[in-house]
Amino acid sequence: VTPRVRFAPSPTGFLHVGSARTALFNWLYARSVGGTYVLRIEDTDAERNRRDLTDNLLAELEWLGLDWDEGPVFQSERQERHRQVVADLLERGLAYLCDAENREVSGSTLVDGLAVRFRMPAGQTMAFDDIVRGEVSFATDDLEDFVIWRSNGSPMFLLANAVDDADMGITHAIRGEDLLSGVPKVLLMLDAIGAPRPTYAHLPLLVNEQRKKLSKRRDDVSIGDYRERGYLSEAMVNYLALLGWGPPDEVEVRPVSEIVDLFRIEDVNKAAAFFDVKKLEFVNATHLRGLDRADFLQRVAPWVGESAPWPAERFDAGVFSAMVDLVQEKLRTLADTPRFVDFLFLSDPVDDPESWEKAMVKGPSAAEMLDGAAVALADCPWDVDSVLAAVAGVGESLGLKLGKAQAPIRVAVTGRTVGPPLFETMAGFMERDEVLRRIARARARL
Asked: Is residue 56 in a domain?
């Protein structure tokens, strides 16, 4: 049987990194074994579902590159099928009508305004093998009868989930650990409708640095936000793949195609996975450095276009393209780009108080360094080695190593303590007079 998996989100908000990890592991499993990846939108909660949220969710999945083979199937369009199943369970006595006080109401057909509960059998043990967690069992005596049909005439999540998995021939249900407790109820319904049970794999929880479950309110968990902050889709996929799984050769940063080749659902571990933004940054920076120039320029375009912090008429695409080799190595995200090059396209460098304090106020001999550099740079040859030698020479006369010596020059010229290689930038991309003007401007502030 060809493996069939599904990603079945509810369109009630943004795509959460935990949901994205679930989508990814289903996709990786399908692609690694030649299976079918189904996208199902579980939109039975009419009050909370919005079409724009669905569209956004589909766009984020497409951005991640998680293409689906079938769907999207909308659960709301299958309510007549769900109604048929509930009616059959009622007629067979496996479910019963109940009122608002959860009291059983006699009758074997659906009644408007009444909910339906599944009748929990007594004295049974529901056991199943989970690929990640091993054997799991629940005693039905520990579980209560549960609602499968709302009084407003719509199916509950578990009922719709079970019926749709059965009808779509889902062979493997790969999903978050938080859904584990619902499995015995789903299995009872599958058994009741004569459908085969899927194989389950419950993925470990994602936790923050306090080892608490990731929260939409407390943690940065929106895929869309990371996209807007300049993370690469392939880096996000690469990092999400490491949350509960690891390649056998322990080389963590690699192309998605290699991850597909190496992925085995049996290798997923059950320990909670730490969603580490710093590690995500590292993975992203590594992928950024691997982009060729043309690809990088295409990807970074939104950040150096209309939203950039400089007047459009001052931007020089040729200068920026030539700067790529100096800048790309330093970036963590695409959104970092403007602050590494803005000084080239602004009439004056930005005023960054933290950088000024560090280099000009707390740094050693800032005034003397600026005075000396102004003289040395006024008549030295305008090439990288000569500019470096001029600044280094002034620093040596003041007893400063190059790192300390160049700091006030960097802040005077670029506005910040961190940026592209200073001497290559000055000699290669700036006029001598402009460099001297900026040094004089900074000196006047001291």
From this structure: no
Residues of the chain with pLDDT under 70: none
Domain of 388, CATH number, reads: 1.10.10.350
Residue 441 lies in a domain: yes
Provide the phi-psi class of 61: left if phi over 0, else alpha when psi is between -120 and 50, else beta: alpha
Picking from 325, 345, 365, the residue at the C-terminal end of a domain is 345
Residue 304 is part of which domain span?
A: 293-345
| Global pTM value | 0.92
3-state SS class at 36: strand
* Per-residue pLDDT, 439: 99
Q: Are 5 and 26 in contact (CB under 8 A)?
A: yes
| DSSP, residue by residue, 239-272 | HHHTSS---TT---S--HHHHHHH--GGG---S-
pLDDT at 45 (0 to 100): 76
Give the separation between CA 393 and CA 402, rounded to whole angstroms. 9
What is the C-alpha separation between 409 and 109, in angstroms, rounded?
83
> From CA 331, how far away is CA 340, in angstroms rounded?
8
Q: Are residues 417 and 358 in the same domain?
A: yes
Short-list 63, 58, 3, 9, CA closest to 31: 3
Contact predicate 355/315, CB 8 Å = no
Nearest to 131 by CA among 168, 171, 174: 174
Give the tokens for residue 255: 């192309």
